[in-house]
Design brief:
mainly alpha; about 120 residues; globular; about 0% strand
Length: about 120
């Protein structure tokens, strides 16, 4: 059985493969075992935050964009937790994210909703 972090990473890779224009960077689609420790910890933490929100209820009323924004905000918090001086692109607000990343974040929320039950 996969951990929450692995489930998050699986959804990220699927979203990148579906939405990224062209060939993604190898680090975007690296398997779980090749993912840095900080990124694994972040994936696990964001999975838990999303799963908790879903368990509390009401998320079926969120728009696709709101779901994606929640994932993105949780991820930004993890970036600041693990990287002392992150690149601006790592902590960009929703409006600054490329469309492929917005779509991937929304897909992640939906994937967690299906798999966390």
């Amino acid at each position: 059985m996969m951990t929450g972090g692995e489930t998050f990473r699986e959804a990220w890779i699927a979203g990148v493969r579906k939405h990224f224009p062209g060939e993604p960077k190898p680090s975007y689609v690296a398997p779980w075992d090749d993912t840095p420790d900080w990124e694994r910890a972040s994936a696990a933490a964001v999975y838990e935050q999303v799963a908790l929100l879903i368990r509390q209820g009401g998320t079926d009323k969120l728009s696709r964009e709101q779901k994606g924004r929640f994932v993105a905000l949780c991820w930004i918090a993890q970036i600041y937790r693990h990287i002392p001086d992150p690149k601006p692109a790592y902590v960009a607000d929703w409006e600054q994210l490329p469309e492929w990343q917005q779509e991937t974040d929304a897909d992640i929320f939906d994937h967690i909703a299906v798999t966390s039950g």
